[in-house]
Amino acid sequence: MSNIEQKIEQERDQARAVCEVSGENSGECAAAWDAVEELQAEASHQREVKQKNSLEQYCDANPEAVECRVYDN
Question: Residues with Cβ < 8 Å from 51, sequence gap 6 or more?
Fold first, then answer.
């Protein structure tokens, strides 16, 4: 997760620099901040993804195990 956080920081720095050069109301500035927002959204999505517990991991590796059987009624 720290990799995406580092990328967000890099994009923020780049967006600030672009906005200094081309102006706060420029299209380049808006595009740079859009890139930051997209990375932040991805980071948020990754945090929401449910981590599998040990049984789920075991069943993924051993679907035929007795503990992993699913019965339909």
Answer: none
- Domain residue limits at 59: 2-68
Residue ranges in 1-73 assigned as alpha helix (H): 2-22, 27-48, 54-61
**Contact yes or no for 59/65 (Cβ under 8 A):** yes
Instruction: Let me know if residue 53 belongs to a domain.
Output: yes
In a domain, 35, yes or no: yes
Reading the block at residue 38, the tokens are 């997209």
Tell me the mean pLDDT per 10 residues along the chain, length 73.
Answer: 85 95 92 95 84 91 91 77
Q: How far is CA 42 from CA 5, 11, 26, 68, in A?
A: 10, 14, 25, 32
Task: Enter the tokens of residue 4.
Answer: 């995406």
Number of domains in the chain: 1
- For residue 73, tell me if it sits in a domain: no
